[in-house]
Amino acid sequence: MLAQAYTKSRLHKLSSSSHQAYRQSYKILPLLMMCSAFMSLPNK
Question: What is the mean pLDDT of the chain?
Answer without folding.
Answer: 81
